[in-house]
Each structure stands twice: as C-alpha cells, then as structure tokens.
Amino acid sequence: MKKPLFITFLLIAFFASIIYGGLSDNQQAVKYYSTGVSYHKKKDFNNALMYYNAAIKKDRKFWQAWLGLGICYYSMAKYRNARLIFSYVLSLKPGEPTAKKYYDIMSPGSRKNAAALNTPKSKGDLMWRSACLPGMGQFYNGEIAKGYIYSLGFIASIAALIKYTLDENDAVAAYNNTNYDYADKYKAAQDAQSKIIVPAAVAVGIWSISVLDAYISGSDGKPSSALKAVEIKYDRGITVAWNIARVEF
Question: Whole-prediction pTM value?
Fold first, then answer.
C-alpha cells in the first residue's frame, strides 16, 4: 500500500535541508548547477551531467550538485554510479534524507529495491500476452480492471459463439433430415447461422482492442525508474525538479 504522507514528509525534509543548508558560495558553481538543473528538468540527462560535473569541479563539497548528479544517474538507470554518489553525498551531508532514501532502496537485500527500480513492462511483453488471451497483458501490467473487462468479455463472447455454433449445427441437421416443413427448417438454419456473426465479431473486436491497448500502455524498452517529478523552489530563486522515488509498503 502506498503511503503518500511518507513521500510528502521526505519532500518537506529535503526542502528544509536545502533552505537551511544553502547552496555553494562559489557563484560560478551555482551558475553551472542552475544550468544543470534546467537540463535535468527537460530530462536532457547528458547535458545535466556535464553541468553538474562542472559545478562540482568548482566546488568539490557542493553536495546539492552531487545529489543532482546521483539522481541523474538514477534516472538513466545507472544504479551503481548513482549509489556510489549518494554514498558520497551522505559523507558530505550526513543524514541527507533524499540521498539516504535513494541509497537505501538501492542497497542489496532491500525489500523495497525491486519495487523502486521496477521498470514499465515492454510493449512486446504486454502484446503477446494479450494476443494469447485478451486481458492477460493488462493483468501483467497491473491494470486489473481492464484485465477483467477484456478477459471476461472475450470468454463470454467465445462461450456465446460456441453455443450458437452448436445451435446452427442442430438446425442444419434438422433441415437436412426433415421430411416436412422445409421452408421453416431452412429459415431456422439461416437464423441460427446469422446469430454466429455477432459473438464472433465481438470476440475479434475485444482481442484487437486488448492488443492495441497493450501496445499503447507498454514502454518502448528504454530503461526508466518508478519516479515522480516534483518541483521545488529554493530561497535563491532557483527552481529544481527533483525525482523522488515512489516507495510501496
């Protein structure tokens, strides 16, 4: 179960640490850092890394720049680099809540590690499951309601298709074997045959929609982490988008 209050507390603690901790006294480092932040907000991680590194070269103890660097690596799924940087941030700023949270969720054996680093399911993984049985791709992707709608709808339409097919076979057999009421038997066979079209069309429609929905819902295969973008404004007028991990308990 998610605990939004816990995440809110983490954000408040992080915000407070920035306000009271201040940024670097080196104005050139702050300038580089601000530029790195602007790229980070645009998810241009390569340029963000370059400017965070430039800020760090000007001030080796600029822990906010180190933290931005770590979050950037985390967003790029370079978890080993990110963990080492978060460890260094904690050596510069012991107990820093954001660095500690990231460090903890990437620590071996952490119960939250799998959830925090969980990546969206790929389009292929979802599509082949939905192709086998509509709704299975949605179940695999955690979309339970959709999964039930597609799977139960498909099963119901297939059941109806089987029933109407059996009814048609009986009607055709009755027509072929009758010695009287040919017109009525023929009409009954035609009616039974027309009833097959509806559940067949519904089954094909549900199958198609389920596969299409799986394609739309799936990721394109690029690594990403389960993060939520949060915007924080500092007292010096610098606006930063920090990524805070969504932790599930």
Answer: 0.44
